[in-house]
Amino acid sequence: MNQSDVLATIAQREFVNKSLDLLTNKEKESGKKLTASVITFGCQMNARDSEKLAGILVASGFELLEDTEDADFVLYNTCTVRDNANQKLYGHLGEALSRKKKNPEMLVGICGCLPQEPSALEKIKKSYSYVDLIFGTHNLYAFPEYLSRLLSGERHICEIVDHADNIVEDLPVIRKYPFKSGVNIMFGCNNFCTYCIVPHVRGRERSRESTDILEEIRKLAGTGVKEVMLLGQNVNSYGNGIDGEISFPELLKRVCDIDGIERVRFMTSHPKDLSEELIQTIKSDEKICRHLHLPLQSGSTKVLKEMNRRYTKEQYLDLALHIKDEIPDIALTTDIMVGFPGETAADVDDTIDVIKQVEYDNAFTFIYSKRMGTPAASREDQVPEAEVKENFDRVLKCVQDSAKKQSLRWQGLVLPALVEETNTSLDGYVTGRLSNNMIVHFPGTPGLIGTIVPVRLDECRGFYYMGSRV
Ligand code: SAH
Ligand code: SF4
Ligand code: F3S
Description:
This protein is of the alpha/beta class and 470 residues long. The chain has helices at residues 3-30, 44-59, 83-102, 118-127, 143-151, 198-202, 210-222, 248-256, 276-284, 301-307, 313-326, 345-358, 385-407, and strands at 35-40, 63-64, 73-78, 107-112, 133-135, 157-159, 180-184, 186-187, 206-207, 227-231, 263-267, 291-293, 331-338, 362-367, 414-422, 429-434, 439-443, 452-461, 464-469. α8 (248-256) packs parallel to α9 and α12 packs parallel to α13 (385-407). The N and C termini lie far apart (47 Å). Residues 189, 191-193, 196, 198-199, 233-234, 270 line the site of iron/sulfur cluster.
């Protein structure tokens, strides 16, 4: 951290103390404990941000409630990667209004990616004017300050900035799981894929210093964390722009060397920057999970070029097949988009060809969604909905066939599973995650949660296994 980051951190800690005083007084007046909840949309980055927001709420004296919007303060941490993410938020905001009518003291906040997009911000201000607090991705670290202003009685706070000045470290965090944690290694993205709003709402790529990252992971390991997921939009370009910083594979090796860390995952890898060094690092260290998410987007070289993905169909295929050759027990997953402007049925055939050749273990398939301000949105050759739907169904069918076939390849094996939770629908069962990211349910007691145990994969049921401890 540089000097200005340190000062920003200290200032925010003081705001946490101020909120705590204000909240204690309010609770004395009302005679009840005030509650808060954070509702998260979007990707792993947002999930990790929500843990920080929750940490600040708890440090400020709120009682944190999970999975409910019946709280005195509800904070929506939003996503805007596709239009359906926006629509989902608007649905929740409609319901929040009826709650607020019943409880006029209730506070509603919105943060994250969506308010960083100017037209969405306008819509919120106009159509949901009862929202008390709005802030964005670049000033999340200043949440303690905004919270203290809210608790002092200020309303309609709207603080959006268009770039990040600080990487503030060491604010309080409440983790969802005691035994695993996401760790940001970089923020933002420089790739500007022509369909994507992420660089516009998350800003330019900024890597954290490796010493800060390793220190955070050492502390996590000290509290019992066994699995970390290193987070960034393009982890393979980790360290770019910091003089003398180590590479991503080197960072992975150093994370694996930390006592107590037994599993390391990472998200997301851009195919254009995936190095041979990374493949060899994954291969040589068993602690690095046997799962690689390698977004394809499209199998058509023409479409990939127009998307600004900076690889061809052949380069992607060579890379994916080489990885499978080198690390046969790796599970490969991907993201695929259908309906990019100008995409033809022949382009979709290319996508299907790649799916068939790579044989993904799983894939997320998305219908292209026009995002305001991105180059693809202003193209005139948007594909008609019916055509997109037809192509999407073809891709989905192919992905499902591949996933079904691939998931069978673990049948009968005994593999270590990190037990994550008790099974809510099967009494006496727990649920664990394998290194390849598959889920296995098996008989076990809650005492196993957070431990890694060998499990035989007895029966494949599509995307998960039923197993037994050995
Ligand atoms: N940084 C990651 C992706 C982050 S967004 C990467 O480059 O792989 C997650 C996924 O959302 C993307 O992989 C893409 O498939 C999808 N996506 C992004 N923008 C989209 C849009 N405008 N319409 C539909 N899907 C989109
Ligand atoms: Fe979006 Fe492309 Fe960046 Fe991923 S790499 S976040 S798809 S711009
Ligand atoms: Fe969504 Fe923002 Fe993540 S737009 S996908 S929450 S980076």
